[in-house]
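quick one before i forget lol
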Amino acid sequence: MSKKGRILVAMSGGIDSTVAAVLLAEEGYEVIGVTMKTWDYQNSGGSKKETGCCSLDSINDARTIAVQYGIHHLILDIRDEFGDFVIDNFIEEYLAGRTPNPCVLCNTHIKWEALLKRANQLDCEYIATGHYAQIRNENNRFVVSRGLDHNKDQSYVLWGLSQESMARTTFPLGGFHKTEIRQMALDRGFTELAKKSESYEICFVPDNDYRGFLRRRVEGLEERVDGGLFVNREGKVLGKHKGYPFYTIGQRKGLEIALGEPMFVLEINPDSNTVVLGREEELKRNGMWVRNINLQKYASLELPMESLTKVRYKDAGTPALITQEGNRMKVDFHSEVKGIAPGQSAVFYEGNDVIGGGWIQSSYEI
């Protein structure tokens, strides 16, 4: 074992995780690369060519770099565990009228658990990933904070990590900009890798058609939900839709209804199979409830507390006053927020640090 120690690195075959592994190897760590097989695309029944972190090409790309740098490389098959938990939850959330956040769920309950389990088996003290985020120990608490490159920052999807997981995690790319990482790849001769396009699709829906995925996975779904009603906030019937699971809060395109002005999905009611439409202004709310809170920076909070709160990955965040009631957080925004979707993650920040996060339960108007 090297003087720096042994570290397990999640290698997806993409530029970020590859450069993370190479940087650690160059620093003198004994790196063991692991590529996780989470999903067989042919099982989804989609029409698009298999791409992304689970494809054979990506696995081969990861292995090629590992061999080049003398990195021992393993493939970790977690398809059964992933499917039972992440995909079942994905389907259940849409059937409940919510918009799921499968990548957060996978990070929290599947990937880190699988990595740490294998790290223990291989006598690795730490694990590393290619996330653009930073982590530190402060006052005996491990804290995730934004990556230096705020345009690529991925701290939002890491709010669910436990103290135990963070204690053994490092993010080698957190102090770099994406342009620097791409140049590092080019400098090391990874020309094709540097040109490789990034995938923002859900790994088990690589054709980006979640509606088709639901139809293929839930027998008889279309027959069960077809012919529901579009209504306005007063309950007036506006027309028929194709089934409530096929719509998301804030959606404007694909409604296939003409009402003389742009309309957006405001609410989804699975019990009555109704979808509430309204103008863009009606999407705005100034409060929400967040459930299943996981705290990171502090063991407990002195409440009420000011925070910058994000309601989606690309959200810049909105100042809010947060108050905890049981395992729920009451969030009162200081300005209106558009398109708060139950099922998505809410993440609370203090400066660049993640205070904690949870799942959006509902929005409300003060």
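fyi The domain at 6-130+172-195 is CATH 3.40.50.620 (Rossmann fold).
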